[in-house]
Design goal:
Blueprint (H helix, E strand, L loop, with lengths): L2 H7 L9 H12 L3 E2 H4 L5 H6 L4 E4 L3 E2 L9 E2 L9 H11 L4 E6 L11 H14 L4 E5 L7 H8 L5 E3 L9 H4 L5 H13 L3 E8 L5 H12 L5 E6 L16 H14 L3 E5 L8 H11 L1
Parallel strand pairs: 2-5, 3-4, 5-6, 6-7, 7-8, 8-9, 9-10
Antiparallel strand pairs: 1-2
């Protein structure tokens, strides 16, 4: 695809610093928290923070993996803060949130439980201190370690999310240290536990339309009820290039196909990310179940 054609389909990103944005930024900074909004250079940060929503990222800002699509720093983490779960809960309380999304870097260096204990404590602290707030988690795969996953499951997040990120064929290129079917197993375990389960993929990385539909069917078989599809945007020249910018109509087609297949909620669009309008998705999902 020519550069001219690619640019014509490129989604437009809203850039506007509002009072809502400033408020969320102040809360995040004063509580010394990280957000995936900043670390992953999310295109929706201005819109979401204006709505006073943010995705809190726990366990530091250095990831032990180096995925080809992700702009989060990679290296050897030294972050160790047992008070982080409490500070996260206080930030949620100050923002008066009714729904919060928590995510984290991969911590493969923490061999005991890959950071699951901090995950569990964060969910617990929010539930204890902000009782009207529902908690959505977007977790790593914890190397597929079931005892670690159980720690998170047992705290009863209202929504459990883990992204497969892309179709199976290109998974090793996109997530070299992940295992695609291991991610499916994580989702299957969550659904089996009775949790509302969510996952998402990026498009524009070289997949075909039929491969996306096949992926939807594979994911639906795990028990996932909430599915998101968004356009991959290259964070820097060091990351995987965009193969194509998907047209708006194709995103609409994916949404309709997903709903027809049986997903309870499908969010599909150029700027859709896992936590984009997550509060609205959560309300729909909770009404369905």
């Amino acid at each position: 695809m020519s550069e001219i054609i690619k640019k014509s389909f490129k989604p437009k990103i809203r850039l506007q610093i509002t009072d809502g944005y400033k408020f969320v930024n102040d809360v995040v900074q004063s509580n010394k928290l990280n957000t995936v909004c900043e670390e992953a250079r999310c295109p929706n940060i201005y819109e979401c923070w204006d709505r006073r929503t943010a995705t809190i990222m726990i366990l530091g800002d250095i990831c032990t993996r180096a995925c080809g699509f992700c702009s989060v720093k990679t290296g050897k983490p030294v972050y160790d803060d047992p008070m982080e779960p409490f500070r996260a809960a206080m930030a949620v309380k100050k923002m008066n949130l009714r729904h919060v999304v928590i995510t984290s870097v991969d911590r493969d260096d923490l061999k005991n439980d890959y950071g699951a204990s901090i995950w569990a404590d964060t969910i617990r602290q929010i539930h204890n201190h902000v009782k009207k707030c529902t908690v959505e988690v977007l977790t790593p795969d914890f190397k597929g370690h079931e005892p670690s996953l159980e720690k998170v499951f047992n705290e009863g997040p209202e929504i459990f999310g883990h992204n497969v990120e892309c179709i199976e064929r290109i998974s090793k290129q996109v997530r070299s240290q992940a295992v695609w079917h291991r991610s499916l197993d994580v989702l299957r375990l969550s659904a089996k536990k009775g949790l509302r389960t969510k996952t998402g993929i990026m498009v524009g990385l070289g997949e075909s339309f039929d491969e996306v539909v096949k992926t939807m069917n594979q994911i639906l078989d795990t028990g996932v009820t909430i599915f998101t599809i968004g356009q991959y945007l290259q964070p820097s020249k060091k990351h995987l290039p965009v193969v194509r910018y998907v047209k708006e109509q194709e995103f609409k087609d994916y949404k309709q196909i997903g709903l027809d297949l049986g997903f309870g909620v499908v969010e599909s669009g150029p700027l859709v990310r896992s936590s984009y309008h997550a509060d609205e998705q959560a309300r729909i999902a909770m009404e369905i179940k």
